[in-house]
Amino acid sequence: MLFYRKMLWYNHFIILYLCPRTRGAVRRGAAEGGSFMAQEQAYKASDIRVLEGLDAVRKRPGMYIGTTGSKGMHHILWEIIDNCVDEVANGFGDTVTIELLDGNIARVSDNGRGIPVDKHPKLKISGVEVVFTQLHAGAKFDNGQYAYSGGLHGVGASVTNALSEWLTVEVKRDGNLYRAEFWSPQVGGKIKSGVVKTPLTLVGKTKAKGTTVTFKPDERVFGKEEFKYDEVTERMREVAYLNRGVTIVVQDDRLPLGGGDFRRDVFCYKGGIADYVQYLNEGRTVLYDKPLYVEAKEDKFEVAVAIQHTDGYTESIHSYVNNIPTPEGGTHEVGFKSAVTKVFNEFARKNNILKEKQANLLGEDFREGMVAVITVRMQNVQFEGQTKGRLGNPEVKSKVENLVTEKLEALIGMRGFKSAAEKIVGKAMGAAKSREAAKRAKDIARQQNKLNGSNLIGKLSSCTGRNASVNELFIVEGDSAGGSAKQARDRSFQAILPLRGKPLNVEKAPLEKILANEEISTIISALGTGIEPDFDIDDLKYDKVIILADADQDGAHIRALLLTFFFRYMRPLITEGHVYIGMPPLYKMQKKDEVRYFYDDAALEEGRKEMGKAALLQRFKGLGEMNPEQLWDTTMDPAHRALTRVTVEDAAAADKRISILMGDDSTVRKEYIYKYADFNRVDDFAVSEEN
Known about the structure:
Layout: H1 2-15, E1 20-25, H2 55-59, H3 62-65, H4 70-89, E2 95-101, E3 105-110, H5 127-133, H6 156-162, E4 164-173, E5 176-183, E6 186-187, E7 190-191, E8 195-205, E9 210-217, H7 219-222, H8 229-242, E10 247-252, E11 264-267, H9 273-280, E12 292-298, E13 301-309, E14 316-321, E15 324-325, H10 331-350, H11 363-366, E16 370-378, E17 383-384, E18 390-391, H12 395-412, H13 418-452, E19 472-477, H14 479-488, E20 494-499, H15 511-516, H16 518-527, E21 544-548, H17 553-569, H18 571-575, E22 579-582, E23 587-591, E24 594-598, H19 601-611, E25 616-619, H20 628-636, E26 642-646, H21 651-662, H22 666-676
Parallel strand pairs: 2-10, 14-16, 19-20, 19-21, 21-22
Antiparallel strand pairs: 1-26, 2-3, 3-9, 4-5, 4-9, 5-8, 6-7, 10-11, 12-13, 13-16, 14-15, 17-18, 22-26, 23-24, 23-25
């Protein structure tokens, strides 16, 4: 089974560091429809429940942290960390320490000023109690104490307290050590969230300064979820890059039996986001050694940008506002892109690279192969989008464009940077030629579709239903499995697209070659969305795009290739939760009329104990070995199947891993595998039901 475990690890690290986080039964639900009659009931004022204090957080945690799974539990840790980082990033200290302790306990410390301990003039309780028990309470609203801040602006600390079994705060301030304790007891059958157990008390003297928060996430909210050291370090590395000179220490003090290994990492980067770009480009071939870095300030506004081009074909821009990732971009990205286009077109004209009669190059030409990090610090941030991942402040566009244009023009005019600018323009001119060739290829494809009929897409077996919110597309490896899937499916909402061969590795190919690949072009046509920069999620024909491949090396490779393509050219498919991995069983056991299927070795061993030696065992080497009935029962029936939804929790981390694992540098790839591979762990998927 070692080979199979290696293949699962390959999937986990190549594919699903596009982070799968849910595996469970995905039920038909919407496909079946239905109605209900509501009984008329008396509706009185007494029926309106008033949630006092932090009880509202406990009642509706998803409103504050999104989910009560692993992601939500780590979110309450981020909120405490963000407060500490805000303190040191504004010049009040220089170090933040995160410790993971036995019992799923986290401790976060900074050496800042310490939370105020005096009485609040209105609430008549200590500043510590205000911060941890009052929603929308903090020193960040009036822009007086903090020039810039991330987090939930006073909500975060109280939410963490509300969703913890207990929480302790220690404040070192003015030579004194203070301590306050909070807990969430069950009183009269109801949980009281984050109430004061021990008021703020002077417990001793100290020469140190800062705040320490220790807490245990409540199992009544998060179940058996545990803090993951790798997830914490990944986030803290990013935060350290964004806060130049700030030291962030992460250490795992848990015993091995508690999942710990006594690791300790220290992150501090004097180069800030310039170092970050070089880190992201590990394993890539860069066009110039030193990233282009500029920063600028004006009244209560700062912007910093780092750029480095590779020999690749996709752009990768990572943007942040006050340390908060903005994966959907926003006005700061628009301003940055405009500045880059303007500066390098003017450079090309000034240096006679672009002739008088030649048209200006497009922004996408200059961004081919570009890896960039842009971060702004500002007040009164306005986020947009369902996930609050896009900056909406309209004034930021012009601020970023003007400031970056001025600084970038000055930089590439300096000795030592002109060569980099020439390489950027040269690559952009090659990108423009490829863009024109790709446009011609698209036009030819459109004409062929008109001639052949829009419904004749490769070997696509479409579904009869026209409701895109219900329909599913199975991308299946090979004609044999495709034939079984076509017979097994519910054709009212399930479409089947068999692959004739392996898709192209888009990490190593220009757009012209990508569009010429038969498998890729068929997928584009089937989904109906187009690809970046013309991708439109509203044109998606299927709610679920399910990759169904064998559990072997070829299947793992196909999944990796497909997900690399989706990540690079159809990323909203992943970020908006439309991409899934089908999970066919590996084994079938039968004892008389009892038939059971197993998806991994551990489940098989349990099954053997329960069913006994007399049970017949069948190992499925591929999807083609299953008859249509078996394939429907185990893999396609929404009432019983197991799907893994593919999500991206950290676009920068996913981008880097794809570049390493799908790129040309085998040395870096081997080093990464040796460092992170765990062939004893099949997966770490969280299991939950999705309706």
